[in-house]
From TrEMBL:
It comes from the Bacteria. It comes from Claveliimonas monacensis. InterPro entries: Spore_V_AE (IPR014204), SpoVA (IPR005562). This is Stage V sporulation protein AE. The chain crosses the membrane at residues 6-21, 33-51, 93-112. It holds the Pfam family SpoVAC_SpoVAEB. Keywords: Membrane, Transmembrane, Transmembrane helix.
């Protein structure tokens, strides 16, 4: 059942974002920022954790999950280090994921020879 919940929740998030892109004049970058901020706000309100427990990977993989990761990192860093944690927490919490994305993206570019659009 976990796989089914992850599939339909992740699909619903992606479908809603696609509808938002198709029906509004919002640019993809702004929609991505909206998703990250929404994940952080849902984490702040305490709504994201029960949602993620229900949806599993369907909630943690999209950008909503990244926003929640940033929020949790900032919250923990502020508790440990005080005010400076506001600036350090998001970096510490998301460093592994961002590093992996950069490394795997670079490796894929070596294998597939990316080309510029004309």
């Amino acid at each position: 059942m976990e796989y089914i919940n992850a599939f339909w929740v992740g699909g619903a998030i992606c479908a809603l974002v696609q509808i938002l892109l198709d029906r509004t004049k919002l640019m993809p970058g702004r929609v991505m920022v909206l998703l990250v901020c929404t994940g952080a706000v849902l984490g702040f309100l305490g709504i994201y954790q029960p949602f993620a427990e229900f949806a599993g990977g369907g909630a943690s993989v999209p950008l909503l999950g990244f926003g929640n990761t940033l929020w949790n990192g900032v919250k923990e860093a502020v508790e440990e280090e005080g005010f400076i944690g506001i600036f350090l927490g998001g970096f510490k919490a998301s460093a592994a994921g961002i590093s992996a994305a950069l490394i795997f993206g670079y490796m894929a570019s070596l294998v597939f020879e990316p080309k510029m659009k004309k």
